[in-house]
Structures are given as C-alpha cells and as structure tokens.
Design a protein that fits this description.
The structure holds 2 protein chains of 2 kinds. Chain A is mostly helical. Chain A has 10 helices and no strands. Chain B is of the alpha/beta class. Chain B has 2 domains: about 1-100 and about 175-260, P-loop containing nucleotide triphosphate hydrolases (Rossmann fold, 3-Layer(aba) Sandwich), CATH 3.40.50; about 265-350, ACT domain (Alpha-Beta Plaits), CATH 3.30.70. The chains are: A mainly alpha, B alpha/beta.
Chain lengths: ~240, ~350
C-alpha cells in the first residue's frame, strides 16, 4: 500500500460524518427486505428451473434412463456458455433480452431477471454433480421393479440425493446474496446497493459496516439452517 | 454345448424362461463386444437354475436380458408367455412386475426405511395403501425382519439388507426371481442364511429362481440345474449332480474342483506321494458306492488303509465326492484290493 492511499483512508476515517441512526435504521431495514425479496424470488425460480435442467443433464448422460447424447451436448454447451460470464457483465449484456421479455433493464425486476439467468445454470450444474453421486444400482433396481422414468426421477433420484442437494442449494443461496449486491448497479436496491451508495461513496464506514454485518448474519443463519436440514435428511 | 440330459426340442409349457439363439453385442467401445453369444437355454418352472462363470463371462448381461434391463441384439427370449426380446418399454415395465431381482450390492434406497423399500414396488404396481401396508408386513415376516420395518438400510447388516432385497423382489408375487451374485458380498455364514431363504422362496412359494454366481458352492448347495458360461457362451449345461460328477469341459472341471476335490495331480500328487509310503489311489464316492463293504474286508487281505485327502458334497440330496486312500501291504495284496475297489467305483492311481 502506498503512502498516499494510507493517508486517504486515514483522512476518510477522520472525516467520518455523524451517523444519524434514527434515519439510517428504517433504510437499512428496507434494504434488508429488498435483498431478501430478490434472493427469495431468484431462488424459487432458479431453484426449480435449475433442478429440472440439472436432472436432464444427469438423466441424458450415457447409460442413464433418458440417454440422449445430442440433448446432453446442447445442455452442457448452454450451461458452459452462461456460467463463465461475470455477473455484472451478464446483467448489462442481457439488456436486449430484458427489454424484449419484461420491458425494462433497470430496478428490481431486471435485477431478478439477471440473477435468475445466472443462478439457473449454476443450480443446474450443482444438481447434476450431486445426482452423479447416486448409486446407479439403486436406479437399476427401480427399473427392474417396473418403475416408470418419471417415478424413478421423482421417487428415487430426488429423495436419494436430497441431503447433498440441500447443501448445494445453501451454497448457491449465498452466491445469490452476493449477486444481489451487484444489482444495485442497475438501481435494484438492497443491502449491497445501500452499502455502496450510502456507505462507501459518502465515506460513511458505519453504514458500510452495518450492511456487511447484516449480510454476514443472514448468510450464517442460512448456512446453519442448511446444515441442520441436510443432517436431518441424511440422518448423520 | 454339452448336454447331460436330452434337450427338449420344442417349447414346453413347463418352461419359465426360454432363450433361443440369444446374442447381445455392446458397441460402446471401439470394438464391439459379444457379451452373450448365441445362447439357447430352457429354464423349467419351479427350478433353481444356476448360471456360473468367471467375471466377464457374460452371466450378468444374460440375466439382464431376461428382465429386459438390456435389450437382445438377436434371438428370441420369452418369460412365461411374454416375449421379452424386442418388447417396448411399457410392455417391459409390465413384465418386470412379474420378475423379481436381487443384487450383489443389495441396491436398497438409503432415503427410505426398510418398509419404504419393500413398499416401493407395490406403489409402482398401483396397490391401494391399506393392502400395501399389510403386504409389506407379511413380506418382512417372511424374510424374518418383521420387527425392523422402521429401520433404515444403514442400520442393517449385509445379510439383513439382502433379506430386505428379497422381500422387495417378492412384493408383486412374481413367478420368477433373478439373483445376481446375491451372496458375493456376504460372509460364509450370512451366505448360507441367504441361500436358505432363496430355497424357501423356491419351495414354499413355488417361484423359479435364476442364480448368477461365480461360486460353485452356491450351485452345489441350492441349484437343480447349472449352465457354465465362458466368453459369452454356455459351454456346458445340465443337472447339477451330473455336471459335478462328470464335467465335460475345462471350465466346468475348474469350477467343480473348487468344491469337490478332484484326483490329486501335479504338485499336489507329488507332495502326497512324498509324505506317504503306501500306494495312493483316488476313489469316487456316490450314494451307490459300496465302499465301506470293500474297505472293511481289506484287513482280511492283510492290507491296511488310510484316508489321506478328499471331500464329499451333498448335491440335490445325493452324495458325491472323491477320497484318496493310502494302501499298505504286500504288493500282490494291494493289487487285489485295488481290483476289489474297481468293482464298486471308479479308481484312479495317484501319480506325480
């Protein structure tokens, strides 16, 4: 770190403006609710959509119940196409698609659209990876009993992988909270936006720290709940 | 193929499974693999039919052709009145509810309780809930696990898991049960327990059982008939007693020798000869061998004897085996004793 940046930080810390908590508190609450809302909507839509894509990625593999090499190839291509794009770039690159579908490129609606697109493929990959660990013998046994493909998918594959899937979804949910912070860039609100615009840009460390603290508490809570649920499902 | 009994030339109503020139070729790798190569077999209703072979012989593929988990490349395969070869998925699904299957690694669902696992095939077949509950309990009682309904698979021993597998396979009252290496992951004691249960399934419920194995002991203890597979082909087929007492092919002889000790030869023979100064002969023992009568009179001829090696096995309720005897006495007396033995059984001199 150079002397200059040292003194800059020192300066900002000294020039710390007074934080009017009575004014900040409702704003923080509002931002927290916005974050929860964006994350929740994204997780529901991407969670279901990603599960279905992940299930297809897994079942269309060679030797699996819906073996279909062209479909598997295309799905892999699409997932690998979207996943490496940095989220902030994806958010603006999706502009034309947003205009054509939801009619806007700003605010929460657009942010959630971008988050869903990014999350759905991440979920798909995590789901596929968890399903691959299922013992193929169990699927073979279900086939030998005359079970249909749909029954095998939802009564065998899903329950057998449920524990690891819960952990996978917990991991993804935290990634989505991370994405929501960048949504402030297109005016979507939320804690990330608040921390940047009211905290960082106004040299108010209190607000930045408060926002960060709330995010940490939320993430901890989600992780603890995910661990507890997975343990309960896996009975260990 | 070597037939020990005359083959039935036409399809018979007493046949449960009929394979007619069945071939399965896998084309996944660079070179196609003929896993099952022109196999024709008849498995009679009510039999315990063993298919034995080393790993890679094609026996596991063969058993998966029977319930359509793998499709035949050519030939026809029927189970009862259903043609499995060439059948479409919905027909196969229906046929499979009449064919139970158990596996080497049990393949139980870890997310479901013991009762949940047994309940699954009933759900598939669309039984109403009340009947399902009764049937599950009945099946668990049958396999001796009536009190473990609420346990999870990881709380059970290997033998118990396989018994759950058997209960599950019997759920829809199948007429055929396929057992794919069902005891290979179990210790000898548990193996016996599971084989006993398979025998009970066959005797009490009249279910035809096809046992896939690489262990001749399994064949010896429960099977009526046996087919020996090598490189995708059935090289020998017949009554278990006949195949054991008179194997015709090299693979069959190798398998038989793992259970019934053959006449000593090579190193084993030289080692025996080194340790014994008497004349060594190997005699065959069957139900009809009056060996005791001859042996009890050897003293009169001034010949003493020792039993130095061998073993006997009960096959399909009949005794079979070979014993190596050391005969001690005057050369002429020993020769006469050997002649006496030859009158009642097959006798072979043990040579290095």
């Amino acid at each position: 770190m150079t002397l200059n940046s040292h003194s800059l930080i020192a300066a900002t810390l000294e020039a710390k403006p007074k934080t009017d908590w009575a004014e900040v508190r409702p704003e923080l609450l509002q931002a927290t609710l916005e974050t929860i809302q964006m994350v929740a909507i994204t997780m529901v839509i991407a969670g279901i959509g990603g599960f279905l894509i992940g299930l297809l990625l897994y079942t269309t593999r060679r030797g699996n119940i819906l073996q279909n090499r062209p479909l598997n190839f295309v799905l892999n291509l699409v997932v690998n196409f979207v996943r490496p794009i940095p989220f902030i770039i994806l958010l603006v690159a999706l502009g034309p698609v947003m205009l054509a579908t939801i009619g806007t490129t700003i605010e929460m609606k657009a942010a959630v659209f971008g988050m869903v697109v990014a999350a759905v493929f991440a979920v798909a990959r995590i789901v596929e990876q968890n399903l691959v660990s299922i013992d193929p013998g169990v699927i073979e046994a279900a086939r030998a009993m005359g079970a249909s493909k749909a029954r095998i998918m939802f009564s065998v594959i899903l329950p057998e992988a449920l524990g690891p899937l819960v952990l996978g979804y917990t991991f993804l949910l935290i990634g989505v909270v991370d994405m929501s912070a960048m949504a402030g860039y297109i005016g979507a609100g939320g804690l990330g936006d608040y921390a940047l615009s009211k905290g960082y840009q106004r040299f108010n460390w209190d607000i930045t720290m408060a926002s960060v603290l709330i995010i940490i508490v939320m993430v901890q809570f989600v992780q603890l709940f995910g661990n507890w649920l997975a343990r309960k499902i896996m009975r260990r | 193929m070597t037939e020990h009994t005359s083959p039935v030339s036409e399809a018979h109503s007493s046949d449960m499974v009929v394979l007619d020139h069945v071939t399965k070729v896998f084309r996944t790798g660079k070179t196609p693999v003929r896993a099952v190569d022109d196999v024709s077999l008849r498995i009679g209703r009510g039999q315990i039919y063993a298919i034995i072979g080393y790993s890679g012989a094609g026996k596991s593929t063969l058993v998966r052709l029977i319930n359509g988990l793998e499709s035949t490349t050519s030939g026809t395969l029927t189970v009862e009145d259903t043609t499995i070869s060439g059948a479409k998925e919905p027909e196969l699904r229906k046929a499979r509810t009449n064919i139970g299957m158990i596996f080497q690694q049990f393949n139980l669902m870890n997310s479901k309780t013991v009762a949940g696992n047994v309940d699954f095939p009933l759900k598939v077949a669309g039984w109403p809930a009340a009947r399902r509950r009764k049937r599950v309990q009945e099946l668990l009682e049958f396999v001796g696990l009536g009190s473990r309904a609420k346990s999870y698979p990881e709380q059970l021993s290997g033998g118990q898991k396989q018994r759950v597998g058997i209960a599950r396979s019997l759920a829809n009252e199948p007429s055929l049960l396929l057992a794919d290496e069902s005891t290979s992951a179990l210790d000898p004691e548990t193996t016996e327990e599971v084989l006993g249960l398979l025998k009970k399934v066959n005797e009490e419920l009249g279910i035809t059982v096809v046992v896939i194995t690489h262990e001749m002991d399994v064949v010896a203890s429960i099977a009526d008939r046996v087919a020996v597979m090598e490189n995708g082909k059935v090289v020998e087929e017949g009554n278990v007693y006949d195949v054991f007492s008179n194997p015709q092919t090299a693979p069959a002889r190798r398998f038989v020798s793992t259970t019934v000790k053959p006449t000593p030869s090579g190193d084993r023979a030289s080692e025996l000869i080194e340790r014994h100064k008497g004349y060594l002969v190997s005699v065959e023992v069957t139900d009809h061998t009056d060996l005791g009568d001859v042996l009890s009179k050897l003293g009169d001829r001034k010949v003493r004897f020792n039993i130095v090696e061998g073993g006997l096995e009960t096959l399909q309720g009949r005794t079979y085996g070979k014993l190596t005897l050391e005969l001690l006495g005057e050369i002429s007396a020993v020769d006469a004793a050997v002649e006496q033995l030859k009158l009642v059984t097959n006798v072979q001199e043990v040579r290095a």
